[in-house]
C-alpha cells in the first residue's frame, strides 16, 4: 500500500514524498480514508506512530476545495495539550500543505506575546493549532470566530485530561458549531476518554493501532538497582561508559529536573532541563540544542516531554519511575521508532520496587535487572537497625558501604560522625533505648518537595 492508494491528492502526495515517506504507517492507513470519508474518528495511537500526519493530511485535503476563511474565521481547529506539540503539529501543517498555497494556518500558545497572534488571525485562517488556555484568551479578545468551523481535532486527549484541561475543553466546545467533523487522538481508550467522547463524537469510527500498554519490540529495556543517593553519579557513569551522546532523562518533578541538570553539568555533561516553568524561548532553545547535539542530556518532566519530536532517539532513562504505570509506556515509546533500535534504562532504588512491579504487570513482562560495579545497593542485612544496637563479634563492623562515597550520604548533618556520649569518668555512658511509636517516624527522602506538574 502507498499513499496514493489512500485517495490523497497530488499536492499532498508530492509533499509526503519530499519528507521521505513512501508507505503509510498503520494509523495513517486507517485514519486517512476515514477522515476523507467525513466520519468522526476515535483513534488510539502511541507517540511516534505517525498519527500527526494521520489527521493532518486528510484535514488539508478536506479544506482545500472550500472557500478561504473569512476575516477572523477558523475552518479547522486542532487542540493540543502543550506548546511543543502545538509547534510540532503546526510544522506538519506547513510542510504537508506547502503545495496548497491558498490555505492559511497559524499556531497559538501561551508563554509568548499575544499581539502577533491577534494580528495573524485578523485575516482568518484555514487551520488553527492551539493550546486551550491561549485559545480562550484570544477568543475573549474577539480575535477569532468559529462560525465557519468545519473540523475539530483533539490531539493527545488523554494528556489534556491529565493536565486538567477538561473545563477549558468544555468551554471551547460551547463555542463551536454542533455540525462539524470531530477527530479524537489518544494514547489509550481509557474510561475517562470514552466519557469525554460521548460529548464530542457522533457514531465514530474507532481505530486502535497499538495494543493498550504494549511496549515497542525493538526497545531494549533494563533496570539498574541503585541506592537513591547515588542515582546522579550512576547516570553520569552510564553516559560516559556507554558513550551515550543523546539521552532523554525523565524526572518526576520540575525541581528534580533542574537539580539533575546542574549535577550533570558539574560532571562535564552538557545538560538542560525542560519543564512547564521554563519560558517558551528557553524550551525551544533546549530542544534545538538537543537535536543538534550541543546538548547531550535533555532532562524533562512527563508533561514537558509530551509532543517532543525527536527522530531516532537512541536512549531514554527513567531517573525517577513514573507514578502512573501507563506513563512508562509513553516514555520509552520515544525511542525505537520507525524500525530503529532503542534503549530504555530505569534507575530503581528500594522505594521504587512497588512502582516497578506495577509497570511489569502492565506490560506483562519482566524487565531485565542489571547491576553496575561500585553502585550496588546495600543489602537489607547491611542496613543497621537504629532502634537496637547490633552485637558484633570481636567488636568488628558488619557489612560494608556500597556505591560511591558521598558527603550527602553521611548519616549526620555536615558529614560528621557522631561520637558516643561519655560519662564523667570517661567511660561510655549507658545507651538509652528509644521509645517506639509516638510519631517518631523517619522523614521521607524526598526533602519535603511536593510533586509538581511539568
Automatic annotation (TrEMBL):
Residues 32-207 form the Helicase ATP-binding domain. Residues 1-29 form the DEAD-box RNA helicase Q domain. The keyword Ribosomal protein does not apply. Residues 437-448 have a biased composition (Gly residues). It catalyses: ATP + H2O = ADP + phosphate + H(+). The keyword Ribonucleoprotein does not apply. GO terms for cellular component: cytosol. Its EC number is 3.6.4.13. Residues 373-454 are annotated as: Disordered. It comes from the Bacteria. It is an enzyme of class 3 (hydrolase). GO terms for biological process: response to temperature stimulus; ribosome assembly. Residues 392-411 have a biased composition (Low complexity). A motif (Q motif) lies at residues 1-29. SMART domains: DEXDc, HELICc. Belongs to the DEAD box helicase family. RhlE subfamily. This is ATP-dependent RNA helicase RhlE. It comes from Alcanivorax dieselolei (strain DSM 16502 / CGMCC 1.3690 / MCCC 1A00001 / B-5).
Amino acid at each position: 500500500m502507498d499513499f496514493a492508494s489512500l485517495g490523497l491528492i497530488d499536492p499532498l502526495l508530492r509533499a509526503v514524498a519530499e519528507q521521505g515517506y513512501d508507505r503509510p504507517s498503520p494509523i495513517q492507513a486507517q485514519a486517512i480514508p476515514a477522515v476523507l470519508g467525513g466520519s468522526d474518528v476515535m483513534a488510539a495511537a502511541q507517540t511516534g506512530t505517525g498519527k500527526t500526519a494521520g489527521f493532518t493530511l486528510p484535514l488539508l485535503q478536506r479544506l482545500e476545495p472550500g472557500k478561504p476563511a473569512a476575516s477572523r474565521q477558523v475552518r479547522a481547529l486542532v487542540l493540543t495539550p502543550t506548546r511543543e506539540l502545538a509547534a510540532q503539529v503546526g510544522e506538519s501543517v506547513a510542510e504537508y500543505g506547502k503545495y496548497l498555497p491558498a490555505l492559511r494556518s497559524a499556531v497559538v500558545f501561551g508563554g509568548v506575546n499575544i499581539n502577533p497572534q491577534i494580528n495573524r488571525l485578523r485575516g482568518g485562517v484555514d487551520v488553527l493549532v492551539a493550546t486551550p488556555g491561549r485559545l480562550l484568551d484570544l477568543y475573549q479578545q474577539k480575535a477569532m470566530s468559529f462560525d465557519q468551523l468545519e473540523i475539530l481535532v483533539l490531539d493527545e486527549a488523554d494528556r489534556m485530561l491529565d493536565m486538567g484541561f477538561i473545563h477549558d475543553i468544555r468551554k471551547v466546545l460551547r463555542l463551536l458549531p454542533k455540525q462539524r467533523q470531530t477527530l479524537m487522538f489518544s494514547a489509550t481508550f481509557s474510561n475517562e476518554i470514552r466519557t469525554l467522547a460521548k460529548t464530542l463524537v457522533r457514531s465514530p469510527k474507532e481505530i486502535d493501532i497499538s495494543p493498550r500498554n504494549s511496549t515497542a519490540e525493538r526497545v531494549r529495556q533494563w533496570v539498574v538497582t541503585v541506592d537513591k543517593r547515588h542515582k546522579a553519579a550512576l547516570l553520569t557513569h552510564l553516559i560516559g561508559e556507554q558513550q551515550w551522546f543523546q539521552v532523554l532523562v525523565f524526572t518526576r518533578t520540575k525541581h528534580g529536573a533542574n537539580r539533575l541538570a546542574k549535577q550533570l553539568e558539574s560532571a562535564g555533561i552538557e545538560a538542560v532541563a525542560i519543564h512547564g516553568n521554563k519560558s517558551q524561548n528557553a524550551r525551544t532553545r533546549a530542544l534545538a540544542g538537543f537535536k543538534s547535539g550541543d546538548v547531550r542530556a535533555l532532562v524533562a518532566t512527563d508533561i514537558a516531554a509530551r509532543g517532543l519530536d525527536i527522530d531516532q532517539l537512541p536512549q531514554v532513562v527513567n531517573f525517577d519511575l513514573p507514578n502512573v504505570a501507563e506513563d512508562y509506556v509513553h516514555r520509552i515509546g520515544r525511542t525505537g521508532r520507525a524500525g530503529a533500535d532503542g534503549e530504555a534504562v530505569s534507575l530503581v532504588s528500594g522505594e521504587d520496587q512497588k512502582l516497578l512491579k506495577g509497570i511489569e504487570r502492565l506490560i506483562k513482562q519482566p524487565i531485565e535487572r542489571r547491576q553496575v560495579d561500585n553502585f550496588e545497593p546495600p543489602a537489607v542485612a547491611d542496613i543497621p537497625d537504629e532502634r537496637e544496637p547490633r552485637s558484633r563479634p570481636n567488636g568488628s563492623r558488619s557489612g560494608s558501604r556500597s556505591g560511591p562515597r558521598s558527603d550527602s550520604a553521611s548519616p549526620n548533618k555536615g558529614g560528621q560522625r557522631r561520637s558516643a556520649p561519655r560519662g564523667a569518668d570517661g567511660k561510655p555512658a549507658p545507651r538509652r533505648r528509644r521509645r517506639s511509636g509516638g510519631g517518631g517516624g523517619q522523614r521521607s527522602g524526598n526533602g519535603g518537595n511536593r510533586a509538581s506538574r511539568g
